[in-house]
Amino acid sequence: MLFRSPIVVGRFLLLLRELNRPFEVEALARRMASDPGQWTDAGEVRLASMLAVEAGNDKVALKLARRCVDLSPTFHNELWLGRLLSQLKQPKAEETIRRAISLNSSDGAGWIALVEHLEGAGRHMQAVATVAEAEMSLGPAHLPLSLDRKSVV
Description:
The chain is mostly helical. It contains 9 helices and no strands.
């Protein structure tokens, strides 16, 4: 790869996206996924993963999302991986989303992802129980509208 700076790669990926050049975005993401060890900036890797999803290359997106978590197991990186695993109906989606929540239980995004995953998996009663759990963690005043008990029950 010609670019080694995370800032340059990130901006280049976004520029390719803006210019509606999905093949080049996917090629760069594929190249990053083929040798993930050379990429050490989690933000750059997560961006490439997100753009790989947009380009329709789920396999590359998943590989990059896992690399991102390996580099930096933060709330946002774990949540991105968990949402991607859930979208692709992959095992460990719930475990990964719950790991993200354990890193920051006061962020409603994690709870929303977990409820969506459980509903998508046909586990309605667990989704309802998770809303109650989120309400205890976030407090009713901070419960995101999309987690409103009425929308799940």
